[in-house]
Every structure is written in structure tokens, then in C-alpha cells.
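From the pipeline queue, job 12 of 40. The input is one protein chain; the requested action is below.

Action: predict structure.
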Amino acid sequence: MAGVLSTAQAAPIAVSLGDPAGVAPELIAEAWTRRKEAGLAPFFVVGGALALGMAAASRGLSLPVRQIERAGEASDVFDEALPVLGDADCAPEFGVPDESGARLALHSLREATDLARTGSAGAVVTGPIAKARLATVGFTQPGQTEFLADACGLAHESAVMMLAGPSLRTVPLTVHEPLARVPGLVTAELILAKTRIVARALARDFGLSAPRIAITGLNPHAGEDGRMGREEIEVIAPAIARLQAEGFHVSGPHPADALFAAHERDGYDVALCMYHDQALIPIKTLDFDAGVNVTLGLPIVRTSPDHGTAFGIAGKNRASAGAMIAALRMAGDCAARRAAPLPNESPA
């Protein structure tokens, strides 16, 4: 969806290792070996030189690793070796997460985020973590999105999750909530706030000066004129009308069962969906191996592959590096736009 841009003016990308017992280290290693064909901007990993070497060996990859002391050294090293910042490390057993791995994952996430926040890194790409395991070593947030919001001094609702792939972008209005709670959480205020954040971010980071946002209904057939629910009439449609009055290019409420058909997707740039599965099922069906989780609304660029730790296949050379490569490429594109914005990319 987004073209590869020159990243000469952007600082290198910081990559957090993720859980070293999962697939992230081997996918980072493969991404580096494919850096030229994929057109990736320079990146470095925070910690985990040994873990990365073990993971590369499990895939039969030749991975030269060079430890660096400062983020700025990464660009000079990147063509010849994978830069690794610092000496934090562990020797993981693939598929078996443990406390040492969790501590390394949390250290890597904290340091990578701080480097992006202070401008030493142009973006942060986060490897998948095991949240329950991290909770035992001091991770208190529901997930990495909330961690990044806290690190940037923002309320959690100001950090908006977008899933992006080659064929589709979606945003869940409500995220990790039980389905029974969703109707009570769908409010006009939340729709207004998230749509504004999405529109500004797509302009700033994706080069879409007037993004087209399709907003789904909550109920089957978007409520069918109130016969299947009144949220569309009482909440969603009034919010859409207000956004249109403010000049945003929004439409809906759309029936979610038809919105993701191929002939419909050309009509919008992103779909704002009412709940988690409404947004994630289509993106994972269409773009599972190239889906990227992007956090909108932050003062920094953050992307992540849209998959988990995949402990069951870690170290078995079965995981696809497509989503990791896509996350790195997207981070580089967004960082380049922030470093050198174009005249037609002013926020909506």
C-alpha cells in the first residue's frame, strides 16, 4: 500500500527482540539477510546477540552480528552485519519461555522505546511478547500498545491500533474486550476521537492527505433500520454526520459482512470496526503473512508483525518472515515521512 521511500534523513530503526523463545529472533535474522531485496532501511536490535545467532542457525542462515554502543552506529554497520545494541542476552530454549527470556524481552522493549522517544531511533519495531510471562517480571500493561502509550505520557485510548496489509487496513474501535461489553463501550465520543486520530496519522505517516474512512455498524446488516439493533441509528450514524461536518471523508455505518469484499475495498483507505474480531478476521484472512500492527496517535512511529510468539514452531524454520519484513519496511516509510514530510501531507 505504501511505497518504499528514501530514509536517508531518518535515524535507524530500533527493534525489540520479543520473547527470545519465540519466532521473533529468527524472523529478525531472516529480515536482515533479505534487507536488500526487501528495500529495508537500516535497523538494529536491542540486546540478544546470542539469541539471534542461535535463531539464525536454526534456519540455516549465515548471520554476522556486530555489537554497537550507540544507535547512530547502526547505519554504518548495517550493510555488513546485523547491529545489536548492548550486551543483554540469554540462551533460549526454543518454544519454552522462561524468566531470563522475559527479562531480556522487557529490557529490549524498554530500551528500544526510549531510543525512539528521544529521537536516537527513527521508529521502533516490536517483536511479539508473551504478556503473561512478562507480567511476572514487572510488565503491568495489557499489551505493548498500552506500554508505548504510557512511555509517551499518553492515555491508553490515545494510542490506536491499526492493522495494515497489502490489501486492507482496519482499526478496531474496542480492542481486547469481552463481546458482551462491546455495545456499552461503543459511544459517539469514542468514534469521534479514534477517527480523528486515524485521519491525522494516515496523513502524517502514510501520505494520504484526505483518507477515506469506512465505519462499520455494530449489528448484523448495520442494524437494518433498527430491526436488529439501534446503535447504528442512535450512536454511530450521528457520529459519522458530525465527522462529515468537520470535513473528514467518512462513510457508513456499513454492514461488516459485505465491506471487505474485493469490489468494496477500493472505496476506502481504512475501515473503522466496532470490535476486535470484526477488524482482525478480515486482515488475517487476506494478509496473514504480511499484516502489520501499527500504533497511531503516538509521537513516535511503532510497528509490529501482526502475529504472536508462535512458540509451537519456534526454531523449526516454519515461520514466515513476511510480516516482520513488512513491519520493518512500513516503519522505515513512516520514519522517512516524519523526517522529511511532503507538502501535500499536512494532517487532516
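Job complete. The radius of gyration is 20 Å.
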